[in-house]
Amino acid sequence: MTxxxxxxxxxxxxxxxxxxxxxxxxxYKSVEALKNQDVKLADEVVSKKSELAEMxxxxxxxxxxxxxxxxxxxxxxxxxxxxxxxxxxxxxxxxYGKDIANVAKELADxxxxxxxVEIPYMTELxxxxxxxxxxxxxxxxxxxxxxxxxxDDTIDALRYSIFRECITYxxxxxxxxxxxxxxxxxxxxxxxxxDHACKMAEKIYxxxxxxxxxxx
Amino acid sequence: xxxxxxRKGKEIAFFxxxxxxxxxxxxxxxxxxxxxxxxxxxxxxxxGFTFLTGTLSEGGIGPAxxxxxxxxxxxxxxxxxxALLVGIYAYExxxxxxxxxxxxxxxIMLEFPTILVGVFVMNIIAIPMGSYSAFAGAFAxxxxxxxxxxxxxxxxxxQIPFTYREASFGLGLTRIKVIFRLLVxxxxxxxxxGVLIGMAKVAGETAPLLFTAGGLYQSYSIGIFKPVGAIxxxxxxxxxxxxxxxHATAWGASLVLLLIFLLVFIPVRMSLKExxx
Amino acid sequence: xxxxxxxxxxxxxYYGENExxxxxxxxxxxxxxxxxxxxxxxxxxTLLRAFNxxxxxxxxxxxxGEVLILGKNVYGNGVNPIDVRKQVGMVFQYPNPFPHLSxxxxxxxxxxxxxxxxxxxxxxxxxxxxxxxxxxxxEVKGRLDDYPASLSGGQKQRLVIARALALKPKILLMDEPTxxxxxxxxxxxxxxxxxxxxxxxxxxxxxxxxxxxxxxxxVGFLYLGKLVEVxxxxxxxxxxxxxxxxxxxTGVLV
Lengths: 216, 277, 254
Known about the structure:
The complex is a heterotrimer. In chain A, 83% of the residues lie in helices and 0% in strands. By secondary structure, chain A is mainly alpha-helical. Chain A has a single domain (2-209), classed as Up-down Bundle (Methane Monooxygenase Hydroxylase, Chain G, domain 1), CATH 1.20.58.220. The model of chain A has no long low-confidence stretch (mean pLDDT 93). By secondary structure, chain B is mostly helical. Chain B has a single domain (50-274), classed as MetI-like (MetI-like fold). In chain B, helix 5 packs across helix 6, helix 6 (134-158) packs antiparallel against helix 9 and helix 9 packs antiparallel against helix 12 (244-274). The mean pLDDT of chain B is 88. Chain C has one domain (4-249): Rossmann fold. Chain C is built from ten helices and ten strands. Chain C has a six-stranded mixed beta sheet with strand order 6-7-8-3-9-10, with helices on both faces. Chain C is globular. The termini of chain C are far apart. Chain B binds chain C through residues 95, 161-174, 177, 181-182, 185-186, 188, 276-277, and chain C through 52, 54, 57, 59, 82-87, 89-90, 92-94, 96, 98-100, 109-110, 113-114, 160, 163-164, 167.
């Protein structure tokens, strides 16, 4: 009976990891589309929105069923609690990807103001955090989460730097205001995604150890 | 398919064998009952009510019936209290030396030749007192009665699930109270069964009475220290007589004895089914 | 007076040569439901029966160490087990009201035989009180002279609880009280525990972790005669400290 629970739990965990890959991919590809002014890729990202929403719903339903059927305890219970939280964060991340993709379509008509160096770099870092969180979740290994605090600080610094750069461009030429406002927003979205990765890390830490730890 | 048939055939053969053997075992019982009815009924019917109330010379076995009841009553009076206590003791202290000895002793007494009981009681009561008596007969019967009642009591008590014992002690009661106020009443059906079976048993005993009760068939002068009659004893005496009339009376007495026996035994067997805890 | 309802010190229990309970130091606070859980054969029931010296009915059993009930060692010199059992009531795994006594007499018998009441009126009152405490009064008030055979398993078990409560014990020991009771009856008994712990300390033996999680304030996990872990119920079920406990509550331990 309880072995069934553990089997089912494994399946749901796999689905969470699959959903995580999708959310991360949406985020990553949206920035690719932005960088290369690739409207087709941006459309593809936007079209993934419903798939992500379906996964969110499906996993939530299955997790709740496991609670109802097996009344899990201890680590099993913590794993399900973690899953329920993680899918919310992953949905948010995927939807930020969709938002960025929409902006990418809007900004595809004219060349970028600067080389956008810091936005793709920031994306790499954020995606790595999401990746590490998913790995930690899969392998129940919290050592991957140790430096999340510092990594989040780096992301915050990058966002601030992009923000200041954009302000400069806006002051140079009012025609840049709309584009630069978008760039600043994108940096803000990416920073939020890193925050979600940190929240996931907290939940995973709780799942593995039973202790609550704040990552800030 | 053929394997199935062989198995089926074996099953039927086995069933038939069991049925036949069972029949062979119970046939004598029905034969006895039938014979007693066929031979006894005419002589009882001929005398009518007198058969049950009249003295032997009037053609009745009244004193013997009364005697049997007196003996049953007296032997129960002597034997039951002791037997119950012994049974309870053997249940409560199964591992004690006395407990173990008691159990073994009871088993032996169950199988003990009853004629020897008669001889024994004759020696210690009838001879010193100088006469046969109801008391001596009852005493001999009590010795027969006790192991039955004690063994049944012991068994009935042992049937009580341990959880009721725990429940009783859990209420903070002393051992005496637990046993006599809760556990004995709890197994009263089983104990009662033992009592009735013991009494049915002594009602039919002849051998222990031969040298102790004496016999009294011509009057109703009943007294504890006077000789007393009993139906089985009467049958024994009558069968030895050459007279056909006596034989007829013996059959009639057998029927009465059988009826008394069945009247006690059948309700007991019926009530046995109801024993549930 | 001690702060604890039950306290054991280096408690060891043997059946013949076998050590069943291997040195247990346990503290049960007052007015709580304390659940003892563990797999079958871990010694839960044995430990429970050491608390009211009911273990002595088993001649094989031998106890070493101390059991303090409200601060007093019940295995001390001159302690009469009968007095201990009056203070520490017990409910059993098999609902065992006395089948030959009426519902009324089942509750009254302990009072009568222990001479705890002076008059018939007082007895009536106490029987009603105990049945009300056990949430059974409304269901049986019209048929107090019926035999318990007419009751459901859950009702029988509540009758047994009433029988124990009638003696006004301080502590109530329950040995898997819902093991032979249907789900509805189980729920009623579990609700009853919440009420009873206001006035009594309840030690509940269960082989079902879920039940311990639902009804208890504290949990002790017993495994192979040893107390592996004791703690607040919500902590034990959220984040057990010991690996064995974790395995047990997640159902991996067989």
